[in-house]
Amino acid sequence: MIRRGFASDNNAGVHPEILSALTEVNQGHVIAYGDDPHTEKAIAELKKIFGADIEVFFVFIGTAANVLGLSSLAQSYQAVICPETAHINVDECGAPEKFSGCKLLPCNTPDGKLSVDMIASHMHGIGFEHHVQPRVVSITQASELGTVYTIEEIREIAGYTHEQGMLLHMDGARISNAAVSLGSGFYEMSGGAGVDVLSFGGTKNGMMYGEAIIFFNRELCKDFKYRRKQGMQLASKMRYIAAQFSAFLENDLWKANASHANLMAQKLHAAVKDIPGVEITRPVESNAVFARIPSRIIPALQKKFFFYVWDEESSEVRWMCSFDTTETDIESFSSLLRSML
Protein backbone atom coordinates (compact mmCIF):
# COMPACT_ATOMS: atom_id res chain seq x y z
CA MET A 1 0.00 0.00 0.00
CA ILE A 2 1.35 3.42 -1.00
CA ARG A 3 1.09 5.86 1.90
CA ARG A 4 1.39 9.60 1.52
CA GLY A 5 1.62 11.88 4.53
CA PHE A 6 1.13 15.60 4.97
CA ALA A 7 4.56 16.52 6.31
CA SER A 8 6.02 18.37 3.35
CA ASP A 9 5.72 18.73 -0.40
CA ASN A 10 9.44 17.87 -0.34
CA ASN A 11 8.43 14.36 0.70
CA ALA A 12 6.56 13.74 -2.56
CA GLY A 13 8.19 11.88 -5.40
CA VAL A 14 9.11 13.14 -8.86
CA HIS A 15 6.48 13.74 -11.50
CA PRO A 16 6.63 11.14 -14.31
CA GLU A 17 7.10 13.84 -16.97
CA ILE A 18 10.16 15.12 -15.10
CA LEU A 19 11.59 11.61 -14.91
CA SER A 20 10.92 11.16 -18.61
CA ALA A 21 12.77 14.40 -19.38
CA LEU A 22 15.77 13.17 -17.40
CA THR A 23 15.80 9.95 -19.40
CA GLU A 24 15.60 11.84 -22.69
CA VAL A 25 18.71 13.92 -21.97
CA ASN A 26 20.61 10.91 -20.66
CA GLN A 27 21.97 10.15 -24.12
CA GLY A 28 25.48 10.71 -25.42
CA HIS A 29 27.93 13.40 -24.36
CA VAL A 30 27.50 17.15 -24.10
CA ILE A 31 29.82 19.88 -22.84
CA ALA A 32 29.78 20.10 -19.04
CA TYR A 33 29.05 23.00 -16.69
CA GLY A 34 26.09 24.38 -18.62
CA ASP A 35 27.59 24.82 -22.09
CA ASP A 36 25.07 22.43 -23.57
CA PRO A 37 21.90 22.76 -25.68
CA HIS A 38 19.63 21.51 -22.88
CA THR A 39 20.71 24.29 -20.53
CA GLU A 40 20.40 26.83 -23.33
CA LYS A 41 16.86 25.62 -23.99
CA ALA A 42 15.82 25.90 -20.33
CA ILE A 43 17.24 29.41 -20.05
CA ALA A 44 15.40 30.38 -23.23
CA GLU A 45 12.15 29.07 -21.70
CA LEU A 46 12.72 31.15 -18.57
CA LYS A 47 13.45 34.23 -20.67
CA LYS A 48 10.11 33.79 -22.45
CA ILE A 49 8.46 34.06 -19.05
CA PHE A 50 10.63 36.60 -17.25
CA GLY A 51 12.02 38.71 -20.10
CA ALA A 52 15.05 38.67 -22.34
CA ASP A 53 17.14 40.94 -20.09
CA ILE A 54 17.38 38.54 -17.16
CA GLU A 55 20.33 36.39 -16.13
CA VAL A 56 19.71 32.79 -15.01
CA PHE A 57 21.95 30.59 -12.91
CA PHE A 58 21.01 27.02 -11.99
CA VAL A 59 21.98 25.58 -8.60
CA PHE A 60 21.14 22.38 -6.75
CA ILE A 61 19.01 23.44 -3.77
CA GLY A 62 16.88 26.26 -2.39
CA THR A 63 19.17 27.12 0.51
CA ALA A 64 22.04 27.65 -1.92
CA ALA A 65 19.83 29.79 -4.17
CA ASN A 66 18.86 32.01 -1.25
CA VAL A 67 22.35 32.23 0.23
CA LEU A 68 24.15 32.93 -3.05
CA GLY A 69 21.45 35.33 -4.19
CA LEU A 70 21.63 37.33 -0.97
CA SER A 71 25.44 37.21 -0.97
CA SER A 72 25.45 38.89 -4.37
CA LEU A 73 23.33 41.77 -3.07
CA ALA A 74 24.93 42.76 0.21
CA GLN A 75 28.27 43.30 1.91
CA SER A 76 29.09 41.77 5.30
CA TYR A 77 28.40 45.04 7.14
CA GLN A 78 24.90 45.17 5.70
CA ALA A 79 21.67 43.44 6.72
CA VAL A 80 18.72 41.51 5.30
CA ILE A 81 15.23 42.30 6.62
CA CYS A 82 12.92 39.27 6.60
CA PRO A 83 9.94 37.76 8.41
CA GLU A 84 10.78 35.96 11.62
CA THR A 85 9.32 32.78 10.09
CA ALA A 86 11.38 33.06 6.88
CA HIS A 87 13.21 29.96 5.72
CA ILE A 88 16.47 31.93 5.67
CA ASN A 89 15.95 32.78 9.35
CA VAL A 90 14.58 29.47 10.69
CA ASP A 91 15.49 26.56 8.43
CA GLU A 92 18.88 27.21 6.86
CA CYS A 93 21.08 26.54 9.89
CA GLY A 94 22.58 30.04 9.85
CA ALA A 95 23.90 29.57 6.30
CA PRO A 96 22.84 33.03 5.04
CA GLU A 97 24.72 34.74 7.85
CA LYS A 98 27.72 32.41 7.70
CA PHE A 99 28.32 32.64 3.97
CA SER A 100 27.19 36.19 3.26
CA GLY A 101 28.46 37.66 6.51
CA CYS A 102 25.24 39.69 6.67
CA LYS A 103 23.04 40.07 9.71
CA LEU A 104 19.40 39.03 9.42
CA LEU A 105 16.89 41.48 10.90
CA PRO A 106 13.69 39.47 11.48
CA CYS A 107 10.22 40.98 11.83
CA ASN A 108 7.48 39.40 13.91
CA THR A 109 4.56 38.97 11.53
CA PRO A 110 1.05 37.67 12.25
CA ASP A 111 0.76 35.90 8.89
CA GLY A 112 4.29 35.32 7.62
CA LYS A 113 4.18 38.38 5.37
CA LEU A 114 6.20 41.60 5.63
CA SER A 115 4.63 45.03 5.39
CA VAL A 116 6.19 48.42 4.74
CA ASP A 117 5.65 49.39 8.39
CA MET A 118 7.55 46.32 9.55
CA ILE A 119 10.44 47.09 7.21
CA ALA A 120 10.45 50.73 8.32
CA SER A 121 10.94 49.66 11.95
CA HIS A 122 14.48 48.60 11.03
CA MET A 123 15.35 51.78 9.12
CA HIS A 124 17.42 53.53 11.74
CA GLY A 125 21.12 54.13 12.26
CA ILE A 126 21.52 54.74 8.54
CA GLY A 127 25.02 56.00 7.85
CA PHE A 128 26.08 55.40 11.47
CA GLU A 129 29.15 53.18 11.42
CA HIS A 130 28.27 51.44 14.68
CA HIS A 131 25.05 49.97 13.24
CA VAL A 132 24.58 47.32 10.60
CA GLN A 133 23.14 48.89 7.44
CA PRO A 134 19.89 47.50 5.95
CA ARG A 135 20.48 46.58 2.31
CA VAL A 136 18.06 43.80 1.29
CA VAL A 137 14.44 42.93 2.01
CA SER A 138 13.60 39.24 1.56
CA ILE A 139 10.03 37.99 1.15
CA THR A 140 8.76 34.45 0.59
CA GLN A 141 6.03 33.69 -1.96
CA ALA A 142 4.05 31.72 -0.80
CA SER A 143 5.05 32.35 2.80
CA GLU A 144 6.04 29.72 5.31
CA LEU A 145 2.57 30.08 6.84
CA GLY A 146 0.90 29.30 3.51
CA THR A 147 -0.19 32.88 2.93
CA VAL A 148 0.26 34.66 -0.39
CA TYR A 149 1.36 38.22 -1.11
CA THR A 150 -0.88 40.02 -3.58
CA ILE A 151 0.86 41.68 -6.51
CA GLU A 152 -0.12 45.05 -5.05
CA GLU A 153 1.52 44.16 -1.72
CA ILE A 154 4.74 43.18 -3.49
CA ARG A 155 4.74 46.40 -5.51
CA GLU A 156 4.27 48.43 -2.34
CA ILE A 157 7.16 46.66 -0.62
CA ALA A 158 9.36 46.99 -3.71
CA GLY A 159 8.57 50.69 -4.04
CA TYR A 160 9.49 51.43 -0.43
CA THR A 161 12.55 49.18 -0.58
CA HIS A 162 13.91 50.93 -3.65
CA GLU A 163 13.12 54.39 -2.25
CA GLN A 164 15.37 53.50 0.68
CA GLY A 165 18.18 52.46 -1.65
CA MET A 166 17.68 48.77 -0.88
CA LEU A 167 17.04 45.67 -2.99
CA LEU A 168 14.20 43.13 -2.95
CA HIS A 169 14.82 39.37 -2.87
CA MET A 170 12.09 36.75 -3.24
CA ASP A 171 12.32 33.18 -1.99
CA GLY A 172 10.09 31.45 -4.54
CA ALA A 173 10.32 27.87 -3.31
CA ARG A 174 6.51 27.67 -3.64
CA ILE A 175 6.03 30.39 -6.22
CA SER A 176 3.97 28.02 -8.40
CA ASN A 177 1.41 27.59 -5.64
CA ALA A 178 1.27 31.36 -5.17
CA ALA A 179 0.81 31.97 -8.90
CA VAL A 180 -2.12 29.56 -9.03
CA SER A 181 -3.63 31.12 -5.92
CA LEU A 182 -3.49 34.59 -7.48
CA GLY A 183 -4.32 33.50 -11.03
CA SER A 184 -1.10 35.25 -12.03
CA GLY A 185 1.96 34.60 -14.13
CA PHE A 186 5.41 34.31 -12.56
CA TYR A 187 6.75 37.59 -13.91
CA GLU A 188 3.82 39.70 -12.75
CA MET A 189 4.51 38.87 -9.10
CA SER A 190 8.30 39.00 -9.30
CA GLY A 191 10.30 41.15 -11.72
CA GLY A 192 7.18 42.90 -12.93
CA ALA A 193 6.34 43.91 -9.36
CA GLY A 194 9.83 45.17 -8.57
CA VAL A 195 11.68 42.08 -7.32
CA ASP A 196 15.43 42.31 -8.02
CA VAL A 197 16.46 38.68 -7.46
CA LEU A 198 14.27 35.57 -7.41
CA SER A 199 15.02 32.08 -6.12
CA PHE A 200 12.75 30.11 -8.46
CA GLY A 201 12.02 26.63 -7.19
CA GLY A 202 10.36 23.50 -8.51
CA THR A 203 11.46 20.78 -6.08
CA LYS A 204 8.34 21.21 -3.95
CA ASN A 205 6.16 20.95 -7.05
CA GLY A 206 7.26 17.77 -8.79
CA MET A 207 10.92 18.26 -9.70
CA MET A 208 13.69 16.03 -8.35
CA TYR A 209 16.06 18.86 -7.46
CA GLY A 210 17.27 22.17 -8.81
CA GLU A 211 16.68 25.88 -8.42
CA ALA A 212 17.08 28.85 -10.75
CA ILE A 213 18.45 32.14 -9.45
CA ILE A 214 17.02 34.88 -11.64
CA PHE A 215 18.52 38.37 -11.72
CA PHE A 216 16.26 41.05 -13.15
CA ASN A 217 19.13 43.56 -13.02
CA ARG A 218 22.26 42.26 -14.73
CA GLU A 219 24.42 44.77 -12.86
CA LEU A 220 23.84 42.73 -9.71
CA CYS A 221 25.41 39.52 -11.05
CA LYS A 222 28.56 40.56 -12.88
CA ASP A 223 30.72 38.25 -10.76
CA PHE A 224 28.08 35.67 -9.95
CA LYS A 225 29.61 32.86 -12.00
CA TYR A 226 32.59 32.96 -9.65
CA ARG A 227 30.35 33.16 -6.59
CA ARG A 228 28.39 30.11 -7.75
CA LYS A 229 31.57 28.08 -8.32
CA GLN A 230 33.05 29.10 -4.98
CA GLY A 231 29.75 28.25 -3.37
CA MET A 232 30.05 24.67 -4.69
CA GLN A 233 26.87 24.98 -6.77
CA LEU A 234 28.22 24.81 -10.33
CA ALA A 235 26.81 21.52 -11.62
CA SER A 236 29.09 19.67 -14.00
CA LYS A 237 26.16 17.75 -15.52
CA MET A 238 23.89 20.76 -15.57
CA ARG A 239 21.67 19.29 -18.28
CA TYR A 240 19.91 17.25 -15.59
CA ILE A 241 18.78 20.39 -13.77
CA ALA A 242 17.97 22.20 -17.00
CA ALA A 243 15.92 19.34 -18.45
CA GLN A 244 13.72 19.36 -15.37
CA PHE A 245 12.98 23.05 -15.74
CA SER A 246 12.13 22.62 -19.40
CA ALA A 247 9.64 19.86 -18.62
CA PHE A 248 8.34 21.83 -15.63
CA LEU A 249 7.58 24.89 -17.76
CA GLU A 250 6.48 23.28 -21.02
CA ASN A 251 2.75 22.66 -21.33
CA ASP A 252 2.29 24.35 -17.93
CA LEU A 253 3.15 21.25 -15.91
CA TRP A 254 3.99 23.59 -13.02
CA LYS A 255 0.43 24.96 -13.09
CA ALA A 256 -1.22 21.54 -13.21
CA ASN A 257 0.86 20.31 -10.27
CA ALA A 258 0.37 23.43 -8.15
CA SER A 259 -3.33 23.64 -8.96
CA HIS A 260 -3.80 20.09 -7.76
CA ALA A 261 -1.83 20.66 -4.55
CA ASN A 262 -3.77 23.84 -3.78
CA LEU A 263 -7.09 22.12 -4.50
CA MET A 264 -6.18 19.23 -2.20
CA ALA A 265 -5.41 21.74 0.58
CA GLN A 266 -8.85 23.25 0.12
CA LYS A 267 -10.45 19.80 0.26
CA LEU A 268 -8.42 18.90 3.35
CA HIS A 269 -9.51 22.14 4.98
CA ALA A 270 -13.15 21.40 4.19
CA ALA A 271 -12.84 17.84 5.51
CA VAL A 272 -11.37 18.74 8.91
CA LYS A 273 -12.59 22.24 9.77
CA ASP A 274 -15.84 21.10 11.41
CA ILE A 275 -14.37 18.21 13.38
CA PRO A 276 -14.78 18.98 17.11
CA GLY A 277 -11.34 19.68 18.59
CA VAL A 278 -9.84 21.00 15.34
CA GLU A 279 -9.19 24.73 15.03
CA ILE A 280 -7.94 26.08 11.69
CA THR A 281 -5.36 28.75 12.55
CA ARG A 282 -4.32 30.26 9.20
CA PRO A 283 -6.00 31.21 5.93
CA VAL A 284 -5.68 28.39 3.37
CA GLU A 285 -4.26 30.30 0.40
CA SER A 286 -1.82 27.81 -1.12
CA ASN A 287 -1.09 24.15 -0.38
CA ALA A 288 -0.79 24.33 3.42
CA VAL A 289 -3.34 23.81 6.17
CA PHE A 290 -2.47 24.92 9.70
CA ALA A 291 -4.55 23.71 12.62
CA ARG A 292 -4.57 23.35 16.37
CA ILE A 293 -5.42 19.85 17.62
CA PRO A 294 -5.13 18.18 21.03
CA SER A 295 -1.51 17.23 21.69
CA ARG A 296 -2.55 13.84 23.11
CA ILE A 297 -3.54 12.49 19.66
CA ILE A 298 -0.57 13.80 17.66
CA PRO A 299 1.90 10.89 18.12
CA ALA A 300 -0.65 8.25 17.12
CA LEU A 301 -1.88 10.32 14.19
CA GLN A 302 1.70 10.86 12.97
CA LYS A 303 2.30 7.11 12.91
CA LYS A 304 -0.40 6.73 10.26
CA PHE A 305 0.07 10.01 8.36
CA PHE A 306 3.31 11.79 9.21
CA PHE A 307 3.23 15.59 9.58
CA TYR A 308 5.12 18.23 11.54
CA VAL A 309 4.18 20.09 14.69
CA TRP A 310 4.57 23.79 13.91
CA ASP A 311 4.28 25.12 17.46
CA GLU A 312 4.54 22.65 20.33
CA GLU A 313 3.38 25.16 22.95
CA SER A 314 0.06 25.83 21.23
CA SER A 315 -0.21 22.36 19.64
CA GLU A 316 -0.38 23.92 16.17
CA VAL A 317 0.37 21.52 13.31
CA ARG A 318 1.03 21.94 9.59
CA TRP A 319 -0.43 19.71 6.91
CA MET A 320 1.08 20.10 3.44
CA CYS A 321 -0.49 18.85 0.23
CA SER A 322 1.50 17.89 -2.86
CA PHE A 323 1.06 17.33 -6.57
CA ASP A 324 0.41 13.65 -5.83
CA THR A 325 -1.95 14.00 -2.84
CA THR A 326 -5.19 12.16 -3.53
CA GLU A 327 -8.75 12.59 -2.30
CA THR A 328 -8.43 9.11 -0.83
CA ASP A 329 -5.51 10.34 1.28
CA ILE A 330 -7.66 13.17 2.57
CA GLU A 331 -10.65 10.95 3.27
CA SER A 332 -8.54 8.41 5.15
CA PHE A 333 -6.73 11.07 7.15
CA SER A 334 -9.83 13.08 8.06
CA SER A 335 -11.70 9.91 9.04
CA LEU A 336 -8.87 8.83 11.32
CA LEU A 337 -8.65 12.31 12.83
CA ARG A 338 -12.41 12.35 13.45
CA SER A 339 -12.33 8.92 15.09
CA MET A 340 -9.51 9.97 17.42
CA LEU A 341 -11.42 13.04 18.52
Could you write a compact summary of the structure shown?
By secondary structure, the protein is an alpha/beta fold.
Written account of the structure:
With 341 residues, the protein is α/β, with parallel strands linked by helices. Helices cover 39% and strands 16% of the residues. It has helices at 16-24, 37-50, 62-71, 87-90, 95-100, 116-120, 151-163, 175-182, 186-189, 224-230, 239-249, 253-272, 298-304, 327-340; strands spanning 55-59, 78-83, 103-107, 133-140, 167-172, 197-201, 211-215, 279-280, 288-292, 308-311, 316-320. A hairpin with a 7-residue loop joins strand 8 and strand 9. The longest helix is centred in the last third of the chain and has 20 residues, at 253-272. It is globular and about 60 Å long.
What is the CATH-assigned architecture of the largest domain? 3-Layer(aba) Sandwich
Query: Count the helices. How many?
Result: 14
Rounded to an integer in angstroms, the radius of gyration calculated over CA atoms is 20 Å
Care to count the β-strands?
11
The total tally of domains equals 2
Q: Strand order within the widest sheet?
A: 1-7-6-5-4-2-3
Distance between the termini: 25 Å
**Which bin fits the share of residues in helices?**
25-40%
| CATH superfamily grouping of the largest domain | Type I PLP-dependent aspartate aminotransferase-like (Major domain)
- The secondary-structure class comes to alpha/beta
Q: Which segments are poorly predicted (pLDDT under 50) over 5 or more consecutive residues? A: none
CATH level-3 fold name of the largest domain: Aspartate Aminotransferase, domain 2
- Mean pLDDT score: 97
